[in-house]
Write a structure and sequence with these properties.
The chain has about 270 residues and is mainly α. About 85% of the residues lie in helices and about 0% in strands. It folds into 2 domains: about 130 residues, no CATH class; about 140 residues, no CATH class. The longest helix has about 40 residues.
Length: about 270
């Protein structure tokens, strides 16, 4: 059943973004040619290039704004709005409903980011030799992470990618929890959701500030005594730092997820 929920959410996502993703790439191609011919262009050509760039920037901004709006609407309308009457009658637990929305949100963000990066690379290709650019990146990788450091560097990249994905999930789960809390009220639910989000953000910021002040120096001294000076590069310290960050984000995500699931399971108010 979880697979069917994912299929439903992804189908809705594709309906919304089937135009904007290709449009961003198409505008990038147009800007590539208008910018490459800008030196010999007439006043009209310069105007066309400027307009094309403005449209491209606008659609790039719109892509990420629409991504955020889509994520919020899919959760709010799908689970807390009119669609919630149908979704909550399905033979699935609330965790599956939340998980489906979350997976779709993270995938949507990743795809939109990849489209943006691809579009930017298309535009700058006449100005920057991409072959030479990637050659320099490869040279830097080999210089810093090559040889005996290759395995550690690859593992660190995987850990960083995991941290980024968990960070996306944590951000969306914080939004979900705020909307679920706001929906407990009979009036002003949108305003209460915003207030709940601000409150959660303040509490989390205070807790992180407190724990970093208490444990930050302790961890630094631990790494300094354990790793620095004993290795050519403190990869163990890098891995440990990344995994501590992953653990902190994972715990926060789990707390947001469980609280949201509890509200939907026991305190749901669709009136």
């Amino acid at each position: 059943m979880f697979g069917k929920l994912l299929k439903y959410d992804f189908r809705s996502m594709l309906k919304q973004f089937a135009f904007i993703w290709p449009a961003a790439l198409a505008l990038a191609v147009i800007n590539r040619f208008t910018l490459s011919s800008l030196e010999s262009a007439s006043a009209t050509g310069e105007t066309v290039a400027a307009v094309a760039m403005m449209v491209f920037v606008s659609i790039m901004i719109a892509m990420f704004v629409i991504t955020l709006i889509f994520v919020i609407q899919r959760f709010y309308k799908g689970l807390l709005g009119d669609e919630g009457y149908l979704m909550h009658t399905l033979p699935v637990r609330p965790w599956a409903l939340i998980g489906s929305k979350l997976v779709c949100a993270v995938v949507l963000t990743v795809v939109s980011t990849l489209v943006a990066v691809a579009a930017i690379l298309i535009i700058v290709s006449p100005v920057i030799d991409l072959g030479e650019f990637f050659h320099v990146i490869r040279w830097l990788w080999d210089a810093v992470c090559g040889g005996k450091n290759a395995a550690n560097a690859f593992l660190a990249c995987v850990e960083l990618l995991l941290l980024i994905l968990l960070g996306m999930a944590e951000g969306y789960l914080m939004l979900y929890l705020a909307m679920a809390i706001g929906h407990l009220f009979n009036k002003g639910r949108a305003a209460m959701s915003v207030a709940a989000y601000i409150g959660i953000h303040v509490v989390v910021s205070v807790l992180l500030s407190f724990t970093s002040n208490v444990f930050g120096d302790m961890l630094y001294n631990f790494f300094d005594n354990l790793f620095w000076g004993k290795h050519d590069y403190p990869w163990q310290a890098v891995h440990m730092s990344l995994w501590i960050s992953i653990l902190v984000v994972a715990v926060g995500s789990a707390v947001y997820f469980l609280l949201t699931e509890y509200i939907l399971r026991n305190k749901l108010n669709l009136e």
